[in-house]
Structure formats: structure tokens, C-alpha cells
Amino acid sequence: GMPVEQNPPALSLYEGADSGLRCNFSTTMKSVQWFQQNHRGRLITLFYLAQGTKENGRLKSTFNSKERYSTLHIKDAQLEDSGTYFCAAERANAYKVIFGKGTHLHVLP
Amino acid sequence: DAAVTQKPRYLIKMKGQEAEMKCIPEKGHTAVFWYQQKQSKELKFLIYFQNQQPLDQIDMVKERFSAVCPSSSLCSLGIRTCEAEDSALYLCSSSQGTGDNERLFFGHGTKLSVL
């Protein structure tokens, strides 16, 4: 299968709702990054994780290398959260970062 | 986010023309990556430089692109003969490239339109 499988492909939320995105990995990864791509195309780094959980405001991300997954949780969704979210993971003993296909998030008023 | 600079922001070429885009990596970063993204879909790896040397690239780049990093502060990606399918956002990223410091920082991208 795909090295990085990202779900869901698309997601619509109402303002104030909570939701989660997930990436599953076909092999052991040593790190994961989550990005938000805005409407202008700029990729903004949300998290870089080698293990464990990190929080930043309304966002929380977890990376479990052993179980081969990472999640991004969005709490109290806001309109400005709309965009495409990508996870990108790096294999152990490798340099190339592999991107998921992205989740298109649309926050509705 | 860190300052990876890409120029130009937009590039319009006719089919058959040559195209060139530039990237200034974050100061001190030794690893530079180029990615291609079509229509806001997944990012496709193109080429990777470490200390200005190309260490990996996909076949398409070998065949039709030219990519160099003549200095640690400037890299370029060129397309020798543009084709319609090359229309995409080209993203440059850099990282410190050592051990745990491999977080990627991205530029704004160069949006290429081939007419």
C-alpha cells in the first residue's frame, strides 16, 4: 500500500466543532510533520514530532511510531482553519519525506 | 515559519520554452528539496540536495529538468522544454538535515503555468 495514507480526503465542519485527521504508515517512520496549506499555496508547519504528543492552541498532534500512525486533532474549528492539511513522514535511515495526499478541510459558518 | 525564499512567485511559459525558478534556503540549512504540486493535490518529490550535491532525483528530473545548488545560499530548478503537464506549484524546502533537526521549512512556491 501507500507509505503514507491520509484520511479523510475531505472534511466539512461547522464552526466550533472538533475533529481529527489521521495518517497511517505502512512502515516505521522516525518523524512526522503536519502542515496546513492555505489558499495561496503556502505550507505552514503545524507540528514536527519524533514521538509523543504536542499541543499548540486548538491543535494537538500525536505520533506513535510503533503503531505506525499520527493524528491531528482540531478543537473548536474556526473559519480560518479551512485549507488542506498534509502529513509528511520520514522513514528511519532515510532522508526523503513522504507526503500523504492531504485532507481538504472546509469549516462552515 | 523560517525564511525559505522562492522566486518568482508566478511564471508563465509557452510550451517548448525554458523555465527557471530559484530558491534561497534558510541560512545554515544543508538539505534542499524540491516538490511539485498539481492542483492542490499531493506533493511529489523531485530532487534532494545535501551540501549542494544532488543525492536523489526522480527520472522526470533527470530527463527534462536541470537542478543545481551552486552555493549554499542559492538553488535553482529549471525545465529545459516546458510541457503542459509541467503546470504546477513548485515548492522548495530546506532543513538542517542532521539527526533530529530535519524539520522541513517551505517557501511560498513558484506557480508555473505552461500555455
Structure description:
The complex is a heterodimer of chains A (109) and B (115). Chain A is mostly beta strands. Chain A has no helices and eleven strands. In chain A, strands 2, 4, 5, 9, 10 and 11 form a six-stranded mixed sheet that branches. A five-stranded antiparallel sheet of chain A has the order 1-3-8-7-6, with no helix packed on it. In chain A, a hairpin with a 5-residue loop joins strand 4 and strand 5. Chain A is globular, with a radius of gyration of 13 Å. The N and C termini of chain A lie far apart (37 Å). The mean pLDDT of chain A is 92. Helices cover 5% and strands 53% of the residues of chain B. Chain B has one helix and eleven strands. In chain B, the strands form two sheets. In chain B, strands 2, 4, 5, 6, 9, 10 and 11 form a seven-stranded mixed sheet that branches. The N and C termini of chain B lie far apart (33 Å). Classes of the chains: A mainly beta (109), B mainly beta (115). At the A-B interface, strand 4, strand 5, strand 9 and strand 10 of A face strand 4, strand 5, strand 9 and strand 10 of B.
Kindly report the average pLDDT value of chain A: 92
Number of strands of chain B: 11
Largest interface: A-B, 25 and 27 residues
Largest sheet of chain B: 7 strands, mixed
* Mean pLDDT over all positions of chain B: 90
Helix/strand order of chain B: EEEEEEHEEEEE
Output the structural class of chain A: mainly beta
Q: What is the strand content of chain A?
A: over 45%
Low-pLDDT residue spans of chain B: none
Please tally the helical runs of chain A, counting DSSP H or I stretches of 4 or more residues.
0
